[in-house]
């Protein structure tokens, strides 16, 4: 299927503005990141060797020489078209997936920064890891015996103060409030240690999932990353990784093998999220655009 027919409503309907209103008639002008972002956001059709359409989106590669409509030219001198995304991560335990994502932001695999961590267990390993690295830690929800806890609307306001672009659930065991889902549509991801929709839903978490997989006799398992809705593990599936279940596996054996793939998969998906490579098919199915071949989707 042609990429142009896969997606609905992605083409910009804005008219191409006069070039001089943007560049003020200058040729051989060095422009900054902000100017390039304007071109991307409004999808103007300036011709250039590395200014091109991808499934209805305009991509600009900086450092290239772009030909303008009137035969003028300028050099785009910038390191990145898209700024780093700001990530809020939610954990309830050791936070090994959080740690993998954090390390990936440091080595450049993920074009983002973890700006805040949310947990329902302030003494958990993930929260301690965040504090040691200067990442703010927010407790939500508060324990029932504590007075004046943060409300769902307070949580939304707090994430907005941190300018969080996306929310990543990494072993967070509480149901996400509807207010947060409405505030961040198609912007909240969760990872689950089974091939959803199997072995998902309320009560299926941690070792309970792997115990159930072993007891069922299933030959395959693996992690699923999905968008979050108002129920446990029922949002649109974005990515999965298949892991074999061996005849001699215990639940702990399987858990260790699945966890290795969780770390890899969540980093890959977070990278795609931060690079704008997650697109939605007309029937509401999310797809990941290949970085190596933009015409391929998974």
UniProtKB/TrEMBL annotation:
Single Gene Ontology BP annotation: 'de novo' IMP biosynthetic process
Record protein name field: Phosphoribosylglycinamide formyltransferase, chloroplastic
Organism phylogeny: Eukaryota, Viridiplantae, Streptophyta, Embryophyta, Tracheophyta
One Gene Ontology CC term in the entry: chloroplast
Superkingdom, taxonomy of origin: Eukaryota
A family per Pfam: Formyl_trans_N
Main location: plastid
GO molecular function, one term: phosphoribosylglycinamide formyltransferase activity
CDD domains the record matches: FMT_core_GART
Subcellular location: Plastid, Chloroplast
Keyword field contains Transferase: yes
Entry's family note: Belongs to the GART family.
Presence of the UniProt keyword Oxidoreductase in the record: no
Formyl transferase N-terminal domain residues: 85-270
NCBIfam families membership: PurN
Reaction equations catalysed: N(1)-(5-phospho-beta-D-ribosyl)glycinamide + (6R)-10-formyltetrahydrofolate = N(2)-formyl-N(1)-(5-phospho-beta-D-ribosyl)glycinamide + (6S)-5,6,7,8-tetrahydrofolate + H(+)
């Amino acid at each position: 299927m042609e990429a142009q027919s896969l997606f609905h409503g992605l083409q910009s309907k804005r008219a191409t503005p006069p070039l001089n209103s943007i560049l003020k008639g200058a040729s051989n002008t060095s422009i900054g990141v902000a100017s390039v972002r304007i071109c991307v956001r409004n999808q103007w059709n300036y011709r250039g060797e590395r200014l091109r359409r991808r499934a209805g989106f305009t991509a600009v590669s900086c450092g290239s020489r772009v030909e303008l409509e009137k035969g003028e030219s300028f050099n785009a001198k910038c390191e990145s078209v898209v700024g780093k995304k700001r990530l809020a991560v939610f954990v309830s335990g050791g936070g090994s997936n959080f740690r993998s994502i954090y390390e990936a932001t440091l080595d450049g695999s993920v074009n983002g920064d973890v700006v805040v961590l949310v947990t329902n267990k302030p003494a958990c390993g993930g929260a301690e890891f965040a504090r040691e690295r200067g990442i703010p830690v927010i407790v939500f929800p508060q324990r029932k015996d504590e007075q004046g806890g943060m409300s769902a609307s307070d949580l939304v306001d707090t994430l907005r103060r941190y300018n969080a672009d996306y929310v990543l659930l990494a072993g967070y065991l509480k149901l996400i409030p509807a207010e947060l889902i409405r505030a961040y549509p198609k912007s909240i991801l969760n990872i689950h240690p089974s091939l959803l929709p199997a072995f998902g839903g309320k009560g299926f978490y941690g070792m309970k999932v792997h115990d159930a997989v072993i007891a069922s006799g299933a030959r395959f398992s693996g992690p699923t990353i999905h968008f979050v809705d108002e129920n446990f593990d029922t949002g649109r599936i974005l990515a999965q990784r298949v892991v074999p279940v061996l005849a001699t596996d215990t639940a702990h054996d399987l858990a260790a093998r699945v966890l290795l793939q969780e770390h890899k998969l969540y980093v890959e998906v977070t990278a795609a999220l931060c690079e704008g490579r997650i697109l939605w098919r007309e029937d509401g199915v999310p797809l990941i655009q290949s970085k190596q071949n933009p015409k391929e989707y998974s």
